[in-house]
Amino acid sequence: MTKTKNILLGHGSGGKLSHDLISELFVKYFQNEILSQQTDSALLSLSLKDIAFTTDAYVVDPLFFPGGNIGKLSVCGTINDLSVSGAVPKYISASFIIEEGFSIEELESIVKAMAEEAVKSGVLIVTGDTKVVNKGKCDKIFITTSGIGEIDEKYKSISSGTRIKTGDQIIINGSIGDHGIAILAARESLNFETPVLSDCASLNGIIRNILESGVNVKFMRDATRGGLATVLCEVSEKTNTGIELIETSIHVKEAVKGVCELFGFDPLYLANEGKFVIIVAAEDAEKTISILKNDFLGKESTIIGEIVTNHKGIVAMKTEIGGSRIVDMPAGEMLPRIC
Amino acid sequence: MTKTKNILLGHGSGGKLSHDLISELFVKYFQNEILSQQTDSALLSLSLKDIAFTTDAYVVDPLFFPGGNIGKLSVCGTINDLSVSGAVPKYISASFIIEEGFSIEELESIVKAMAEEAVKSGVLIVTGDTKVVNKGKCDKIFITTSGIGEIDEKYKSISSGTRIKTGDQIIINGSIGDHGIAILAARESLNFETPVLSDCASLNGIIRNILESGVNVKFMRDATRGGLATVLCEVSEKTNTGIELIETSIHVKEAVKGVCELFGFDPLYLANEGKFVIIVAAEDAEKTISILKNDFLGKESTIIGEIVTNHKGIVAMKTEIGGSRIVDMPAGEMLPRIC
Questions:
Q1: Which residues from chain A sit within 8 angstroms of residue B225, using beta carbons?
Q2: Fewest CB atoms less than 10 Å from the CB: which of A277, B98, B317, B324?
Q3: What is the CATH number of the domain that holds B204?
Q4: Looking at residue A35, which CATH number applies to its domain?
């Protein structure tokens, strides 16, 4: 595309080089009518007045990891935040902060992955920004995506947690910790017999299937940074309900277990990028599991616990060896820059 | 607030320290019902289905400069992008990438400035994200804001430039280059008799006054990165019209002129953060000027040129000494990281 193989400060100037980068990379791959207007703001015509709005910065290290890269992650993450709120993701913005000297070829791979994920999930990347900072002033590339989704009136109370009642069943759509361990393995060059892939995926399709099935969904949240434990601690504290988990129902891949033992990590706190917790009415639990299992992203779904009247505001877990332990909010940071 | 005076990696973990930071800083200053829900996505009820959506990353160096700081800038910038599209800015998201060790006191000043600007401009900061990266992996703090504004059907063609016709008058709401020079002066510790302040300001009020006055607005754009020249080159190229500027009508402060001579800068290319170009029908030009001058942010508004039939796609300027020169798109980067 441009005559240089690397990003120059001028690519962030707003001038000619910026324009070339926008036309020859972003507009080329994200192709849609709205973005190609190249106005300061994208003009959108919504079909509902109730919307969900979210933002996330992505600083993952390394940029490329088994199962994805920072571009795919930045699109999936925003889609998932909107989806667990009960919204249908529609429009995404993408803001890039790039270190001078960054390879345009790598940037192209990242942008391509974003475009592919957007097409697959039915969202449009409609507006963006690029800033370039001097060498050594940022770590290669950071991406911030924001998203807008349309939300039906009847789903608006899902993200608040106010629907949750004693007896509700807690479900997750597969094994935990894959993303965290995939990142760690890429960083530390760990070798596995079977490599652990990040679970990075857009959950809007599988979530839509559940909502449209008429299942009585009480709450949903994607278990990203801070892992399953953090989501459940937040729900329990916010809604002042007790949560009882069953350790043996929570899938952890053998390779993930192995690395956790080696590094002293607890998989409950490891990041996922394609897993969500869904709390449903007890009578709908089996139906939910069967709908989830019908989807590639939910094949290993299990009921992992329930809402209880005991120990309000506390998450407890029945352990494999028959005891019970409290699951706390993580205090520090186990693995920085996993997303 | 927290027991530490500096940002730790744990503040970006999604766990307990993240929660403390959110409650004790962001929710405290940005206070509004929507943000305090602390859900993954903000749920918004719009009054129109037509919206404008924009995003910008802010990497300005230094973080604090005469007339503003990165926080104020990040809110004004997004408000202005929405306003020049003809939209009424409503909701903003704020994503922070912070270097480990960054002072919480400085973060608080930045967040306070964002909150003040939001209140002043009638927008709500409704959702956000915080990531912390290891020391040396980013330069103190980067902020990405995205914004949603509601746009009336009748203003939807303003940002496209399709309304522009020969004879339309080009207006700017004051002197150019102040922001660029304020940043440069802060960086180089230049001393002025009268310091140059950044013009960083939210333009939603002054723009609304113009739109509601019934003036026939053909186009608007804020003249930020790349300066006045870049905006006009873009318009001219996109709409395939000629632009004729009159150098003597373009205000440049004496101090700004002085620094430009010293460093070999052209004020036409210097960034502004409170200036916008407005193109109006010839018969409405004087009315526009008088409305603009009624506002503190438009006191020095002038007609700086017009749309001509000659030299299509080219911006020419009648110079002070009587000649004419072509104004080109900037090729490289004069002053990196001014926003």
A1: 13-14
A2: B324
A3: 3.90.650.10
A4: 3.30.1330.10
> Can you give the pLDDT at residue A1?
47
Which tens digits make up the pLDDT trace of B142-190?
Answer: 999 999 999 999 999 999 999 999 999 999 999 999 999 999 999 988 8
Classify residue B333: in a domain, yes or no: no
Q: Are B265 and B259 in contact (CB under 8 A)?
A: yes
Specify if B337 maps to a domain: no
Q: Do B283 and B232 belong together in one domain?
A: yes
For residue A40, the model assigns a pLDDT of 86
> Could you report the per-residue pLDDT of B219-230, keeping only the tens digit for each?
999 999 999 999
Tens digit of each residue's pLDDT (9 = 90 or more) over B85-106: 999 999 999 999 999 999 999 9
Tokens of B57: 């990353």
**Would you mind telling me the total number of residues written for chain A in this entry?**
339
Identify whether residues A84 and A216 lie together within a single domain: no
User: Is the CB of residue B55 less than 8 Å from the CB of residue B183?
Assistant: no
* Domains of chain A: total: 2
Find chain A residues with C-beta within 8 A of B55's C-beta: 93-95, 127-129, 144, 146
pLDDT the model gives residue B3 = 67
Answer yes or no: do B15 and A226 touch at CB < 8 A: yes
**Which of B120, B155, B190 marks a domain boundary?**
B155
| 3-state SS, residue A54 | strand
Backbone angles phi, psi at A84, to 5 degrees: -70, -15
Q: Which domain holds residue B14?
A: 9-155
Closest partner residue to A137 (CB to CB) among B139, B146, B332 is B139
The mean per-residue pLDDT over the stretch B115-140 comes to 98
Q: B138 contacts in A (CB within 8 Å)?
A: 59, 137-139, 142
Q: How far apart are CA A164 and CA B111, in angstroms?
A: 34
User: Domain for residue A174, yes or no?
Assistant: yes
What are the chain A neighbours of B149 within 8 Å (beta carbons)?
41
Query: A41, B53: Cβ pair inside 8 Å?
Result: yes
Residue B151 shares a structural domain with residue B21: yes
Give the list of residues 6+ apart from residue A272 with CB closer than 8 angstroms, or none.
A176, A177, A178, A179, A180, A199, A222, A223, A224, A227, A228
- Comparing B53-57, B58-62, B190-194, B195-199, the range with the smallest average pLDDT is B190-194
Tell me: the pLDDT tens digits for A322-335? Answer: 999 999 998 888 88
| Average pLDDT rounded to a whole number, residues B286-311 | 97
Distance separating alpha carbons of residues A86 and B3, to the nearest angstrom: 37
- Contact between residue B11 and residue B132 where contact means Cβ atoms under 8 Å apart: yes
Low-confidence spans in chain A with pLDDT less than 70 = 1-3
What is the predicted pLDDT for the residue at B1?
47
Phi, psi of B241 (to 5 degrees): -120, 160
- Shared-domain flag, residues A305 and A182: yes
**Option in B39, B81, B93 nearest A41 (CB):** B81
B198 pLDDT higher than 60 = yes
Interface test with A, best of B22, B43, B135 (most A CBs within 10 A): B43
Does B321 share its domain with B175?
Answer: yes
Q: For B300, list phi and psi in degrees, rounded to 5.
A: -105, 30
Two structure tokens written together for A218: 């009480």
Q: With beta carbons under 8 A apart, name residues in chain A contacting B95.
A: 55-57, 144, 146
| Two tokens, residue A299 | 């094949």
Residue A251 inside a domain? The answer is yes
Please state whether the predicted TM-score (pTM) of the whole model is above 0.90.
Answer: yes
Same domain, B241 and B198: yes
| β A242-246/A315-318 pair status | parallel
DSSP-derived 3-state class of residue A82: helix
